[in-house]
Amino acid sequence: MDSLRKLNSHYIRSSVFGIEDSLVSTTGLIAGVAVGTTNKNVVILAGIVAIAVEAFSMAAGEFISEETEHDLEPGSKQQKPAVAGLVMFVSYLLAGLIPLLPIIALPLPQALYATIVFAAAGLFVLGLIKGQLTRKTLIRSGIKVLLIGGIATIIGIVVGIFFKV
After folding, report:
1. What are 30-61's pLDDT values in tens digits?
2. What are the two backbone dihedrals, phi and then psi, of residue 78, each rounded to the nearest 5 degrees?
3. Half-sphere exposure of residue 15, counting CA atoms within 13 Å on the CB side?
4. Confidence of residue 6 (pLDDT cuts 50, 70, 90)
5. What single string gives the DSSP state of each residue in 27-95?
6. What is the rounded CA–CA span in Å between residue 134 and residue 81?
7. How far is CA 161 from CA 75, 108, 123, 140, 157, in A?
8. How far apart are CA 91 and CA 10, in angstroms?
């Protein structure tokens, strides 16, 4: 773990941010759309569009933020904006597949339950890894990331029920 921690902490931050945001946003969107419609193809389309757009958007935001930091503090040692953007893109894209794959593979509504379980497990594992990297209590870190991320899924479900079509 120490060698992993020695990686530029900004890249680790970009990866954790991308994974967490993708699991939360994608699951919230998929859950909301899945309870709002019975059309599985619409749920799959919404998930794919969200992952593609958000992965690029998050990568672009990471790139622009890092570039801005470089411009503000030209002499300091920082991560390369293009690498930070790529780390964010890959992290977001791969994590987004976790809640999407059950929707593709299983019939609704079972797929929705599997999506929520897979995303929750992903959030908990991410929290464990975060705890290990930051030398915090593993279980507490796992539960914290799970609870914070779970709120977005609940919001997605509530909105989907409210605007059901």
Report:
1. 999 999 998 999 999 999 999 999 999 999 99
2. -135, 175
3. 16
4. low
5. HHHHHHHHHH-S-HHHHHHHHHHHHHHHHHHHHHHHHHHHHHHHHHSTTS----HHHHHHHHHHHHHHH
6. 23
7. 52, 15, 24, 31, 6
8. 14
Separation of alpha carbons 14 and 39, rounded Å? 34
Give, for 14, the enclosing helix (H) or strand (E): helix 9-36
The answer to whether 128 and 141 have CB atoms below 8 angstroms apart is yes
- Is residue 165 predicted with pLDDT exceeding 80? no
Confirm whether pTM is higher than 0.85. yes
What are the tens digits of pLDDT across the range 66-109?
Answer: 899 888 887 766 778 999 999 999 999 999 999 999 999 999 99
Spatial separation of the C-alpha atoms in residues 58 and 80, rounded to whole Å: 16
Largest CA distance in the chain: 55
Q: How far apart are CA 151 and CA 132, in angstroms?
A: 24
